[in-house]
Specification:
- With 217 residues, the protein is an alpha+beta fold.
- Among the domains are: 111 residues, Elongation Factor Tu (Ef-tu), domain 3 (Beta Barrel), CATH 2.40.30; 39 residues, no CATH class.
- It is 33% helix and 24% strand.
- The strands form two sheets. A seven-stranded antiparallel β-sheet has the order 2-1-7-8-9-6-3. A two-stranded antiparallel ribbon has the order 4-5.
- β1 and β2 form a beta hairpin.
- The longest helix is centred in the C-terminal third of the chain and has 21 residues.
- The chain is elongated, with a radius of gyration of 46 Å.
- The N and C termini lie far apart (136 Å).
Length: 217
């Protein structure tokens, strides 16, 4: 088997160590199939494209300066730095990825398989294309509610400042107490007369009040 040696594959500024056994770049379209009752054919609907995937197979050997496991640590440092909790987009430099327009990836998977064969260490790397998403924030209805609330507050304030909101019961009682007997009787007589003119049935006795008014000098 022929391996490609010293092929330049650089991820996050680090040249991947070892011999490159293979490199595969996969691009897929998103196509949905729909079930149609009574028909063997499945209509297909294209909905977009999936993010590309990049698979790399490496062979790590011992060198004069490093063991294969030390070289594996170099790959692990690219996959996950100490203290890192979330994968970060990484720049990738390779002729094969550039041919597919891929310049940033997410390091999805790192695995190795120990084999008793010439002391070699096969390593598999899986990358997913990174496509940044743009999110447009929409204004909420909260501003509208605040505006409506402020308008109601302003209208209510104007209502309070007008001073024409009627008379409180306390004020009405004080006004009645200040009336003279003659004025109070006349006021009561006027109320009774209004009741008589009302289309509703009023069986209140008004003769006493009217007699009192007639007896006034």
């Amino acid at each position: 088997m022929i391996y490609v040696e010293d092929q330049l594959i650089k991820v996050n500024g680090v040249v991947l160590p070892g011999l490159v056994k293979s490199m595969e770049v996969i691009e897929n379209a998103k196509i949905d199939e729909q079930e149609v009752e009574g028909s063997a054919a499945k209509p297909k609907q294209a909905t977009g494209y999936e993010d590309a995937k990049v698979n790399v197979e490496l062979i790590l050997d011992d060198t004069l300066t490093q063991t294969k496991y030390q070289r594996l640590e170099t790959l692990r440092a690219v996959f996950r730095k100490p203290g890192q909790t979330v994968p970060q987009p990484l720049p990738i430099v390779s002729e094969d990825t550039a041919a597919h327009g891929i310049d940033k990836v997410l390091f999805k998977k790192l695995s190795h398989k120990a084999e008793n064969k010439k002391g070699q260490l096969p390593v598999t790397l899986e990358f997913w294309e990174y496509v940044p998403q743009t999110i447009t924030a929409k204004s909420s209805s909260g501003s509208t509610s605040s505006s409506a609330s402020s308008n109601l507050t302003a209208n209510y304030q104007n209502y309070l400042e007008q001073g024409s909101r009627g008379t409180t019961p306390t004020a009405l009682t004080s006004k009645t107490a200040a009336m003279t007997p003659m004025t109070l009787i006349a006021s009561m007589a006027g109320m009774q007369l209004k009741s008589l003119l009302s289309p509703s049935v009023d069986n209140a006795a008004t003769s006493g009040v009217l007699a009192s008014v007639a007896a006034l000098p």
